[in-house]
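Teaching note: in complex prediction, the entire set of molecules is handled at once rather than each chain in isolation. The prompt given to students was simply: 'Predict the structure of this complex.' The entities are:
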Amino acid sequence: MRLAPPEAAAPLPKGHESGPFVAPGGNTSGPAEPVPRRLLDGGVGAVGVATKLLQVSQLCASYGATKVLYDLDFSLAAGHITAILGANGAGKTTTLRAICQTVRTSGSVLFEGKQLVGQSTESVVRLGVAHVPDGRGTFTALSTEENLRLGGYTRRNRSELALDLEKAFTRFPILKQRRHQQAGTLSGGEQQMLAISRALMLRPKLLLLDEPSFGLAPLIVAEIFRIMRTINQEDGVSMLLVEQNASLALDLADHAYLLETGRVALSGPAEQIKNDESVRRAYLGY
Ligand SMILES: Nc1ncnc2c1ncn2[C@@H]1O[C@H](COP(=O)(O)OP(=O)(O)OP(=O)(O)O)[C@@H](O)[C@H]1O
Ligand SMILES: [Mg+2]
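The expected output is the structure of the full assembly:
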């Protein structure tokens, strides 16, 4: 298999160009040690530069004095689904927070060519980036419908909003049944459906999803992922999907990045990662 330079033009550290995979727990070096990266892109990355919706370069993030992301380089093509995989504490959630500017960041996050670093979270939202956070972030004391209406708060066109509300109810019929029910009383799966639908009320170009499968039964997860694919294909919404469930994410995504201790350890087309047994065993544990 050919190793390739990274999509985002970050040079690999010398001696790491064809470095071995990092076994799970095999590289426990502290933050100062660069993790060897293996790329499965076949030389040019999954997509050309012109079609990039999101281009992240040298992205760092910290909580107070603690740095948790180190020079991340990755990108997402318009209309694609990209997965970010990694173990607990790898920095997946922080990566989404860094894009939304809810954590201190440096580096560059270009969305449709516009720099997000340094903007307010509200500006990021208005540019078309919606975040479905871990824990779902529903307003538990409000009804399903009130949550959905709040989701469209940046929009003024009432007839369009009404259309989108109906669309949410068509996509997830259970939400229509629960329309007047307090969101805190919904099941986990229904709350995840509500969180996704609420984010879509912004009519975003990019949806950031943080572990949508977390804590849900397999049948519910399958249903939610099926509808996510429909949303991507029918509405053209691009997605950056954070998942610990690698198998599930690789089935949906076009491209994947694997994070280890705040660094990109591996990247490539989802299909290729899924079919590479050594990668699956070493990194993904299945
Ligand atoms: N609010 C915070 N304050 C301080 N450190 C934090 C905070 N949130 C996360 N961290 C630390 O940042 C690192 C990355 O955490 P992050 O939540 O991004 O990982 P993750 O890949 O999403 O993990 P998980 O799979 O458990 O959700 C971890 O070491 C974590 O302890
Ligand atoms: Mg997380």
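Point out the following to students. Residues 140-203 form one domain. The radius of gyration is 19 Å.
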